[in-house]
Amino acid sequence: GVLAMSRAIGDRYLKPYIIANPEVTCTPRSEDDECLIIASDGLWDVLSNDEACEFARKRLGVNTAAAGSSAASSKTEQNAEAAAALLAKIALSKGSNDNISVVVVDLKNR
């Protein structure tokens, strides 16, 4: 098809069919929030929310540095990057045919 969202917003001939206004939801955070996963359809087409959270949770939990140290901060970033990479690899292995972009944010700062 001609419709690729990353490019179509600027295509004048598609303006009658495309809404360029994003859908935005504000959700209050709680103490129980562990991570935030921002991903494209390539991930969500093949993984449920629960599955993605479980994989990210397990990868983020890998940390040996003491909390609050600069080593812990560096390890937190590495774990979040590793969780995002893992989710992308899992989506590929499950046969995703869409673009796969994943960002994981550790909200617990383990």
Describe the structure.
By secondary structure, this protein is mainly alpha-helical. It contains four helices and two strands; from the N terminus they run αβαααβ. A two-stranded antiparallel ribbon has the order 1-2. Helix 3 runs antiparallel to helix 4.
Quantity of strands, as a count: 2
Element string (H = helix, E = strand): HEHHHE
Binned, the helix content reads: 40-55%
Proportion of strand residues:
5-15%
Major sheet details: 2 strands, antiparallel
Number of helices: 4
* Structural class determined from secondary elements: mainly alpha
Query: Whole-number average pLDDT?
Result: 83
Kindly report the spatial arrangement of strands forming the biggest sheet. 1-2
Low-confidence stretches: none
The rounded Rg comes to 17 Å
Intertermini distance:
44 Å
Shape: globular
Task: Describe the structure concisely.
The protein has 110 residues and is mainly alpha-helical. It is 40% helix and 9% strand.
Topology of helices and strands:
Layout lengths: L4 H4 L26 E5 L1 H4 L4 H12 L9 H24 L8 E5 L4
Antiparallel strand pairs: 1-2
Helix pairs in contact: 3-4
